[in-house]
Amino acid sequence: MKRIATAGLFLSLFSAGAFAETWTGVISDEHCGAKHAAMTADDKTCVDKCAKGGAAAVFVAGDQVYKIENQDAVKAHYGHKVTITGTMKGDTVHVDSVKM
Length: 100
What we know:
There is one protein chain. This protein has 100 residues and is an alpha+beta fold. It has a single domain (20-99), classed as CATH 2.40.50. The chain has helices at 2-18, 41-52; strands at residues 21-29, 57-61, 64-68, 81-89, 92-99. It has a 5-stranded mixed beta barrel. A hairpin with a 2-residue loop joins strand 2 (57-61) and strand 3 (64-68).
């Protein structure tokens, strides 16, 4: 019985993590999108300005632009190249963690 409980716990922990994915890209804003993929100093300044003006943050990976479900998770990373872990639903990502 103890083996079954241990195996069940292991499988439940493994399956919960199986749905999370990791992507590398940049945090931009919805107005400029992929225009700032190079993330120069001017690009970062523009993203900061647009975000402060109310534009939602987006995640740009390659030529794809994704909405970010939980905006607060990326607030400290506007204009940065990051690796995010989260779950994707259509064109929207829910961010679990962000690393520069």
